[in-house]
User: Which sequence fits this backbone?
């Protein structure tokens, strides 16, 4: 038995343990036991992934019920990379869940679903043939739907979100099924090995590519297939949101990499362009919506759309450059894609766990009613702050390194004789730059409004810090954001091994070296330099602080006024107002201003009410009409069904005759 | 004139053409539009003159003089007179806001570079290298025509379009016969005069020169 | 880490720390003279700074650690930008690219610190300034990246030192139309990023028109001193960068006392010229309405984008 | 106004600021920290706006108080001197106290105009709560109704010492 085999079996065993714990242990200790078993499963997954990434081989065949072939698990290097991500996020989220879950989310069903969800996430990248892949994929979808539904009895929004999620996820499944079917037919087998023999330039390959990419894009939350994301992420329990956003969505990216790098490398030029277009639109649209959103978790969900968009853009750039033989920048772009995957997993876990902690403490997700939490929840504040730095791609976090690599590959990729590339690259640079700028605004807003200044609502004013398990989980996740940002060298080595990129590697003190384009970055050296310039500033500050202590005053300066209420502060809505005005055409916000005049005179105003609604315009312009159309078709179809048993038998009979006719032809 | 100097002069004229047309889209002031068009006319004339001198083509130098007079002086002047008559100072409500128009501009420029690619591969040289600028001008002119509502802005768009066509013609064929240019110029002059009459009639009729008012005439 | 780069970095930070208050003083003086005033003298910002360090800082109820840490982060980020940007010389650390993205990210770290200081104040004005500041910062970023991208194309490297060095070697590239377009775009971006006219009025007293000033309304004593120094350093560094790109002459490419001296003198000359020109230009400008600023930025973006497009033309023709 | 006309005007106008008079002797016991740089926060505690016009003059190009290192600022947090004008009205008494409280030490309070010093013509009026000295400690008074810009500038120079 190889180590990889042992690891795979250990995950399954730990999951069985978790299931048993969830079923047997009473509600008082259930969370602790089941959670611990899932943490173990997650760690096993991450370790197995690391082994596979290091080149370890081994396969496990799990028999399932009769009509199907057994599930074959044999992770390769790329799968190993994603196993590490899924396992690490799973372990942290489960740890967090021990302290977080209450009510319906702490039930037997939820803990069992959680165990299966984490296992499925870890095993999807390990699948070695299409059937196993799809089975595990479906397992992942079903278990996550169950988790999402945890709170369905109390809130109608949960039911609606689950419905959207179930429909979209099955649409994605259908597309994947079709795509793999096309590939299997062309390659003569469902194994990934035989599929890889399909010529990338054939029509079948292109058809399969489009189907599969759309299927994976839907799972990954790429605009315009993202509609489930801003509904499901906010309504799920926060540790599940973290898992969904940081790990499950990545499976979509894994799928895209699987298709374009492992199964069908060297496809036509337009494959790359398709990915760049999908990714670019997704990135800009996602971050625009995130910057104007006021629901904290909805904002994080849209930011996921943005980040996945950047990953697709990076991957597409890699493919495009490869198809023109521009190897160095292409390697850098694909490496950037994997850096983004790991970086996003780290900071988005932190952010969702932080948002969960806020929700736990205040009962609020609405930024407009938060504020002043940094004094009341210092650990959450620190963790969320680090996560926000990462999401805003500021030094020295995992997000910064990834975005740096992406921009480097874009700039160096264009320096060629190729016209198409030199048109696409500047546009891509613009998209990435605009995205980065808006992300900055979005996360300054999220952190500043939620944690700084004074509380805007009752919940925020009476908040308290979360329990130990939650704090440890949040700090672990936050530490990984910094660690990946400070020492990205090993990560880049891993990424290079995962996608087979010879021209990237570590340099210096765990710095990264994109040798294909001659760009290197050592965040640790940058930090040292920052520390060096910080020292004199700090010395002056400390000396002065001894001589001149701070004096406390009662109120912020508000023109000397005595009734400065927290309601006069800027809210998340007002913070994003200039931006929503600038992007009026893209966001189409609806604004209602209701003026109530005083009874005595129309010139005196009693109260003014301002309300702003921001709908997802993709949803209102694409999905709503589609759903309305489906409704109409459904109503028409009802006429076929009148309850008469003879009529139903008649349908069957006609169907039989029709089939016979077709067969006989 | 050395080839190097020729390169630089062509580049400079083309640059001025491009810059003035970007400013034409950027600025909504109609006062500035007339001045920018005049500057553009001068740049176009210098472009023609440079080609003429380099190719030792007297006729082309004469055409340059014609361009200078017509596009650098007469047309902007007519335009400004029409503007004064309508009393308009700014394009108040374009159909597309300035920011969006500017972004569209960058994409149009890319498009111009893309479509002129075959031509530049066919005959590499400084004049063909500047062809995309001419095509950009044509595209910008269309953009103005479709997104501006004021009659004077329409005129500006039309003139920009015409400058673009002229620039492409000079750059690709290395010159247009004097008679042809004369005819084309007179056509343009005629169109401008007709539009001017139309504008003043509109001002009298509707009290403004917003072309959307013309939809009232449909019934 | 090589010593030469360390020496140069130290020289740049120290020189900029001395020069940037003088630069602001000079700009105020130029403006005052054009308005017919006598002016407070070039040294006035330095005096203000010395006084602010000697005053007690206040802390309002409900504000957090951000009010005291934010200013320090801003200064540190600006100082780090002074290290990274080629001002006096073009020698870089081997492992820290003086890459344009690294530079912009470090700059944005300061921007974020300032925006959080504004939000933490908990007054309506602070939030307002912060929101506007971040909106402009978000919209400026494409212009900055694309314009330096345009400048990087002839050199084939995004390192600022390499770009400046390349321009020093090939002076004809300085006056090429492409580089002029890109520089104009970059200059507009710098003006927006540092809160000068016509984007922001640094000498306004009217809270509703403020951007930068509104964020610092709540700070006092050394906090305010750091914020001011940080903003001045950032102005100095960015103007210095434009200066180095516009006129790369005199910049040191080796570390000897003489070349450093020449580099510093050249930097002073560039800052004096650019600062005076900027201040004089501001006299003729009125502040733009906030919602017309995106037009300005879109315009500068188009220039930068045209520069990139045209660069490929030049490279391939 | 066109650019050219503005340039011509700037050139033809030249320097408006009057030559600086001899510096007055410094205010005894003024904080050493404030030498050469004084930021001024102006509080209108209930003035008739006569003093405001004169303050505007003092900081305008002719008297140019800024050349002595004094500058008006938008927040008391930035200020060293709180410059109060007018008789203190009931509604402004608390904001005035808060403004001074919100000014970091070392700070000075300047009462400008007769109303601020001793209620002036508004003494005993409805709405007037008292003179500035009744609510906050005044360090320096500037007499006049309204005081001339030169006098205001003189007082500021006594603080800056320039």
Assistant:
């Amino acid at each position: 038995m190889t180590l990889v085999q042992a690891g795979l079996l250990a995950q399954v065993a730990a999951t069985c343990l978790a299931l048993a714990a969830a079923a047997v242990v009473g509600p008082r200790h259930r969370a602790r036991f089941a959670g611990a078993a899932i943490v173990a499963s997650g760690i096993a997954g991450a370790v197995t992934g690391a082994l596979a990434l290091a080149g370890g081989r081994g396969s496990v065949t799990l028999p399932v019920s009769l009509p199907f072939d057994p599930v074959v698990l044999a992770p390769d290097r790329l799968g190993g990379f994603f196993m590490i991500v899924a396992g690490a996020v799973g372990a942290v989220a489960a740890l967090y869940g021990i302290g977080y879950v209450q009510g319906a989310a702490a039930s037997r069903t939820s803990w069992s679903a959680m165990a299966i969800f984490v296992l499925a996430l870890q095993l999807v990248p390990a699948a070695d043939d299409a059937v196993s892949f799809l089975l595990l994929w479906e397992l992942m979808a079903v278990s996550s739907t169950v988790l999402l539904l945890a709170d369905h009895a109390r809130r109608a929004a949960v039911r609606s979100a689950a419905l959207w999620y179930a429909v979209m996820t099955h649409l994605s499944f259908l597309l994947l099924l079709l795509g793999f079917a096309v590939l299997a037919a062309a390659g003569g087998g469902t194994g990934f090995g035989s599929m890889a023999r399909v010529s990338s330039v054939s029509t079948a390959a292109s058809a399969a590519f489009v189907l599969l990419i759309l299927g994976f894009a839907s799972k990954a939350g790429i605009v315009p297939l993202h509609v489930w994301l801003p509904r499901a992420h906010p309504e799920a329990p926060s540790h599940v949101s973290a898992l969904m956003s940081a790990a499950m969505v990545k499976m979509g990216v894994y799928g895209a990499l699987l298709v374009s790098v492992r199964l069908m490398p060297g496809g036509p030029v337009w494959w790359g362009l398709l990915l760049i277009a999908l990714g670019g639109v997704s990135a800009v649209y996602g971050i625009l919506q995130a910057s104007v959103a006021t629901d904290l978790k909805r904002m994080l969900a849209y930011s996921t759309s943005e980040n996945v968009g950047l990953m697709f853009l990076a991957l597409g750039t890699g493919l495009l450059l490869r198809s023109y033989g521009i190897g160095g920048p292409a390697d850098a772009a694909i490496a950037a894609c994997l850096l983004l995957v790991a970086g996003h997993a780290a900071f988005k876990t932190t952010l969702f766990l932080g948002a969960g902690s806020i929700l736990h403490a205040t009962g609020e997700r609405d930024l407009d009613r938060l504020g002043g939490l940094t004094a009341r929840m210092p650990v959450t504040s620190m963790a969320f702050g680090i996560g926000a730095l990462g999401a805003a791609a500021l030094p020295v976090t995992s997000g910064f390194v990834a975005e740096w690599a992406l921009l480097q590959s874009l700039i160096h990729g264009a320096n060629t004789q190729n016209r198409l590339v030199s048109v696409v690259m500047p546009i891509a640079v613009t998209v990435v730059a605009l995205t980065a700028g808006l992300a900055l605004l979005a996360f300054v807003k999220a952190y500043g409004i939620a944690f700084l200044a004074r509380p805007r609502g009752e919940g925020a004013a009476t908040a308290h810090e979360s329990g130990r398990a939650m704090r440890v989980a949040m700090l672990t996740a936050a530490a990984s954001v910094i660690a990946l940002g400070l020492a990205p060298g090993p990560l880049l080595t891993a990424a290079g091994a995962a996608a087979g990129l010879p021209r990237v590697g570590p340099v210096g003190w765990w710095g990264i070296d994109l040798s294909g384009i001659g760009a290197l970055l050592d965040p640790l050296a940058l930090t040292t330099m920052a520390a060096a310039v910080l020292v004199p500033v700090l010395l002056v500050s400390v000396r002065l602080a001894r001589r001149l202590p701070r004096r406390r005053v009662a109120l912020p300066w508000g023109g000397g006024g005595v009734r400065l209420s927290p309601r006069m502060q800027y809210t998340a809505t007002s913070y994003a107002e200039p931006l929503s005005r600038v992007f009026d055409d893209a966001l189409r916000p609806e604004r209602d201003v209701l003026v109530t005049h005083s009874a005595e005179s129309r010139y005196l105003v009693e109260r003014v009410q301002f309300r702003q609604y921001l709908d997802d315009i993709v949803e209102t312009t694409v999905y709503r009409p589609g759903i309305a159309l489906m409704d109409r078709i459904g109503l028409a179809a009802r006429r076929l069904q009148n309850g008469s048993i003879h009529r139903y038998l008649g349908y069957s009979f006609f169907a039989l005759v029709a089939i016979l006719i077709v067969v006989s032809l | 004139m050395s080839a190097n100097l020729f390169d630089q002069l062509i580049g400079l004229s083309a640059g001025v053409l491009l810059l003035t047309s970007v400013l034409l889209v950027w600025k909504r002031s109609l006062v500035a539009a007339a001045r920018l068009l005049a500057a553009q006319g001068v740049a176009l004339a210098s472009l023609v003159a440079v080609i003429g001198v380099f190719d030792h083509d007297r006729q082309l130098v004469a055409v340059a003089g014609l361009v200078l007079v017509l596009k650098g002086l007469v047309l902007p002047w007519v335009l400004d007179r029409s503007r004064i008559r309508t009393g308009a100072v700014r394009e108040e409500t374009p159909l597309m806001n300035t920011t969006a128009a500017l972004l569209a501009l960058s994409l149009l420029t890319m498009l111009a570079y893309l479509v002129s690619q075959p031509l530049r591969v066919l005959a590499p040289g400084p004049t063909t290298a500047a062809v995309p600028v001419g095509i950009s001008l044509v595209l910008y002119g269309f953009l103005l025509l479709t997104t501006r509502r004021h009659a004077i802005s329409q005129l500006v768009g039309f003139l920009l379009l015409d400058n673009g066509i002229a620039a492409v013609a000079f750059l690709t064929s290395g010159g247009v016969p004097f008679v042809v240019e004369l005819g084309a110029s007179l056509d343009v002059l005629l169109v401008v005069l007709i539009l001017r009459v139309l504008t003043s009639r509109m001002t009298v009729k509707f009290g403004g020169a917003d072309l959307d008012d013309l939809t009232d005439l449909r019934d | 880490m090589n010593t030469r780069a360390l020496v140069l970095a130290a020289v740049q930070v120290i020189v900029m720390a001395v020069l940037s208050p003088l630069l602001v003083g000079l700009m105020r003086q130029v403006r005052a003279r054009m308005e017919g005033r006598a002016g407070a003298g070039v040294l006035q910002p330095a005096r203000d700074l010395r006084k602010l360090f000697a005053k007690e800082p206040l802390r309002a109820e409900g504000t957090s650690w951000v009010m005291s840490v934010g200013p320090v982060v801003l200064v540190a980020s600006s100082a780090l930008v002074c290290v990274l940007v080629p001002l006096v010389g073009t020698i870089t650390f081997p492992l820290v690219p003086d890459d344009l993205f690294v530079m912009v990210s470090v700059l944005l770290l300061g921007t974020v610190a300032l925006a959080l200081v504004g939000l933490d104040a908990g007054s309506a004005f602070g939030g307002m300034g912060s929101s506007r500041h971040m909106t402009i910062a978000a919209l400026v970023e494409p212009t900055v990246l694309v314009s330096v991208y345009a400048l990087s194309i002839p050199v084939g490297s995004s390192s600022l030192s390499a770009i400046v060095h390349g321009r020093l070697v090939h002076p004809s590239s300085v006056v090429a139309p492409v580089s002029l377009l890109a520089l104009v775009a970059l200059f507009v971006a710098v003006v927006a990023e540092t809160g000068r006219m016509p984007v922001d009025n640094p000498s306004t007293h009217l809270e509703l028109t403020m951007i930068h000033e509104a964020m610092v309304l709540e700070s006092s004593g050394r906090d305010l001193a750091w914020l001011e120094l940080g903003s001045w350093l950032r102005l100095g560094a960015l103007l210095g960068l434009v200066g180095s790109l516009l006129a790369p002459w005199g910049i040191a490419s080796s570390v000897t006392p003489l070349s450093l001296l020449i580099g510093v003198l050249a930097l002073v000359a560039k800052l004096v010229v650019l600062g005076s020109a900027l201040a004089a230009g501001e006299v003729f400008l009125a502040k733009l309405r906030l919602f017309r600023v995106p037009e300005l930025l879109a315009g500068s973006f188009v220039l930068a984008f045209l520069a990139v497009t045209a660069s490929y033309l030049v490279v391939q023709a | 106004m066109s650019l050219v006309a503005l340039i011509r005007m700037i050139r033809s106008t030249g320097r408006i600021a009057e030559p600086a008079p001899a510096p007055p002797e410094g205010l005894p016991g003024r904080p050493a920290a404030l030498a050469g740089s004084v930021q001024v926060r102006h509080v209108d505690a209930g003035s008739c706006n006569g003093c405001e016009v004169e303050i505007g003059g003092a900081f305008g190009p002719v008297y140019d108080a800024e050349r002595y290192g004094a500058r008006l600022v938008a927040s008391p947090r930035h200020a060293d001197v709180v410059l109060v004008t007018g008789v203190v009205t009931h509604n402004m008494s608390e904001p005035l106290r808060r403004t001074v409280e919100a000014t970091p030490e070392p700070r000075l309070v300047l009462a400008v105009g007769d109303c601020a010093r001793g209620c002036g013509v508004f003494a005993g009026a409805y709405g007037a709560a008292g003179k500035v000295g009744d609510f906050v400690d005044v360090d320096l008074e500037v007499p006049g109704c309204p005081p001339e810009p030169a006098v205001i500038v003189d007082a500021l120079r006594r603080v800056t010492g320039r």
